[in-house]
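Data card: per-record layout.
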Amino acid sequence: MSLDTDFLEALFEWLLKGAGAGDRSLDIKLALEIWEFEAIRAKARGNGDYGEYDLPSQNLGYDILIKLAELCLAAPTQDQRTIWESVLKHGPEAHYALQHFIDGLYIRLGAGDDPTAFQFVWREIANYGLAAPWSKKGLWFHGERLLGDILGFGNVEALQLLPPGAALRMKDVYEQWARGHLATDDECIGRFCYFLSSPFGSPLRLDGLRWTSAALRAREGFWYRDETGTALAHLVATSLQADAAVLGGNSEALQALLDIAAMLVSKNVPTALALQERIKRVGSFK
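The structure for this 286-residue chain is written out next.
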């Protein structure tokens, strides 16, 4: 199989790393066929009890996923779903491939591809991921991580390139994710905290504080990792610094901050007591 992938890599270098045939439809058709071959190979060589696929082949597998991301953002709207669904339909079993494809979309955005096309595809794949059965036994962790990857956790610098208001235009998607997934795992909480602390995530921060507080209450204030407390403390400190002018007039966000700080105090997180006192000084809390 290595000989096959090496041969295909050399044969289609003009497509994988070049400008293609000059015929977009032909490029898409060939790329999808190469990906189908690669997906069959990875599935056949998978291991474990849960159907986990093998890593993408080197270099063909990784290169075709990046090329599909490029073609997806350049394709007419009516062709985009065919491209991205050909990858995402494999689900968390193929988490290595899906993560590389998602990274490819953000790479293309960072390289200057059409931000309008990205926003359309971004919403489509986010809704697809939220509706997909990705919480499968033995693979749920990969499903949660893939959803976070789609939502841009870890790629906020690229998202900053989108037109103003992009985060708020996705508020409904983030809220749906938060209600259904934020309480699932420590990593979800930590990644969301850093997302909300970023400039891109800042328009969602006050709402995000409420969603985070609700998720922590659902977990009875419990988390496993020390890093989760660190991320929560970072979010609280960021909000106190950046949102002080509006927190006093937003009682729900302020209460969420107090609730999060109280949980941090109960877990003996450094700086928690100081943060709690700062929150009380912002509003009318005594």
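Known properties of this structure: Residues 106 and 155 are 7 Å apart (CA to CA). The chain has two domains: 1-163, 186-286.

See the next section for split statistics.
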